Amino acid sequence: MPDLQIQEGQPGIAKAALFGLCPECGAKTLFAGPARFSERCSGCGLDYSGFNVGDGPAALLTLLIGALIIILAIILDSAVRPPFWVHVVIWVPFTIAMTIYALRVSKGALLAAEHYNRAHEAGRDDVA
What we know:
The chain is mostly helical.
């Protein structure tokens, strides 16, 4: 297992994920859009395109956020019995905001973890 060594000036995985910081220099350059990575860090030049975060976080977040929204909507409906349009006005923006923020955090955490562990895809050179 690789030895996780964070050098001075590098943010931890949680800090990099929560604030969109470059895992190498700590500059706030990780994201170019709501949940899209920049091509590279403008501070230190770290190439983000070499990291393979994939769509794993999206599937898990869909299930978790969907379950949370349904539970909250049922609680609200049983307590207050609002009209349907109230549910739409509350839950649609809440779902969108939670999904985008959770995607940023989870993708940022995976990219930072890959960087710190120097993870890469296996190739012919890696076969024993």
